[in-house]
Amino acid sequence: MRALLLVLSLLVPALWPGVVAALEVREGDLLFVTAGHGGLSAAIDDATAKQGSTSFDHVALVAAAPQGWEVLHADEKGSRRQTLDQFREDARGKQRRIVVYRLRAPPGNAITDAVTTARTMLGKPYNTAYVLNDDSYYCSDFIERAFRAHHVFALQPMNFRNPQTGEISQHWVDLYRGMGMDVPQDLPGTNPNDMAAATVLQRIGVLE
To answer: For a tag site, which of 2, 80, 122, 140 has the least CB within 10 Å?
Structure first.
């Protein structure tokens, strides 16, 4: 009888609806943050979302540190590090979810090298123009550069047009007009949604 109860205790968590094991991150995992419904987040989503897929407006890299997991990323506060708990709290505060992706078959020392490279990029300002340069970074640009030595992610022509309407949202028009620039349509770059769809990545699950 005791043996039967033990077997049931092992099986029920796996079979009971909605009951899942806690997700554990690894060094090199990418944390994609779901898009919001206004401002910059909505503008990114409008231009880059994939039909039928979860939409993201941010991506970050998990790294090991003496005090525990930390997150390396570029956001409106610049290229910086946070503890994983801080990163999660920020996402919760914005009512966003974090989805974990992992490289299917990382080449050689790709993860170690990416973390080392990412650390050298900390402290730079956020790239509000999204035109690639070596003095500032945006989120997916930061990640692409971290893995660049191993050619993990490819730059693609940037798109600022809504895929359905072909129109560039007023957010982008106003943003670049304020910088005295044309919208950099088709210049090389990256975005979180294209990165999440890359075949080199597999979706692991939602980080609660």
So the answer is: 2
